[in-house]
Amino acid sequence: MAKAFYSSGDVLADRRADYARMLAEGGDHAAAAELMGQALELAPEWAAGWDLLGSYCEKSGDVSGAISAWRRLEALDDEGVFGAQLKLAAHDAGAASEGTAVSYVEALFDQYAPQFEDALVGKLGYRVPEILDAMVSEEMARLGIVRFAKAVDLGCGTGLMGERLRAKVDFLEGVDISAAMIAETARKGIYDSLQKAELVAALNTRRAEADLMTAADVFIYCGALQPVLAALVPALKPGGLVAFSLEAHDGDEALFLRPSLRYAHGIAATRDALVVAGLDILRFETAVLRMDRGAPITGILVVAQKPAVELTAANDCEAGDHVAA
Q1: Is residue 73 domain-shared with residue 169, that is, in the same domain?
Q2: For the chain, how many structural domains are there in total?
Q3: What residues form DSSP beta bridges with 295?
Q4: Cβ contact 270:245 at 8 Å
Q5: Which residues contact 49 (CB under 8 A, 6 or more apart)?
Q6: Within a domain: residue 264?
Q7: For a tag site, which of 120, 134, 249, 273 has the least CB within 10 Å?
Q8: Which of 95, 125, 154 is the last residue of a domain?
Q9: Are residues 212 and 261 in the same domain?
Q10: pLDDT at 51
Q11: Among residues 171, 254, 185, which one has the least CA distance to residue 216?
């Protein structure tokens, strides 16, 4: 089911919903919510209508009304396309799932794909691919890496990260949860291979096959970082690099869900997760990633390395020599 499916099947309900949408576009969200409520009296099983009502209530300041609408939505939307569970969790009215809300994220980006680049780069000042690419290039020079044999761009979207990686990679693969995003980037001819998949599921099928993995603004939809890294590290070759971004917060919590339905990760907790995953931290920086609703979004940018087998073996030999002595 496409998230953009807004027809209730009732002509009068659809007409009232259209008027409600016009009121919302004009900034009168309270009136839009009232009219949307009338539409739902005619079509009480209309999931997309409850999603709209929740949005209008939230924007009008009626949080309790929004929560009530999203609870009804949660009961109707078995597939989780509309993200009711996330919306409730973001308002402390429920618990978010521990992993990616797959159906919601897939539907979100299927709908967003046609205007993705214009909105993100043109309007929101998105800088993550540029910053991550510069960090990777600097680490390549420091480590003496001339090129990467294979790179996997997780959450490749429309190829903004891939465009920057292409010149330094022999074989470039893109993975994305959204078929519409895959279709958009396929037209550009950036990647040697494209796969539609949820990233943890895709990583779990791989073993030591990539010497670079990137994830530009992808893990912000995944929740806890440790399960993602636990799947990612085995898929990296020994000595391979991973470069990714997160939205940041300064609190003690490992992560929390923002009203944007993106996760913000704690700085200290992110460092700990990298260490637990067995990665060596090469770069760990904070920077403004983009604007969101007029406010700058600060993020964490990481380049880390999987230890080389040769170094581990050498250390084991040295330890054995000491024991023998």
Answers
A1: no
A2: 2
A3: 292
A4: no
A5: 6, 8, 13, 17, 36, 39, 40, 43
A6: yes
A7: 134
A8: 95
A9: yes
A10: 94
A11: 185
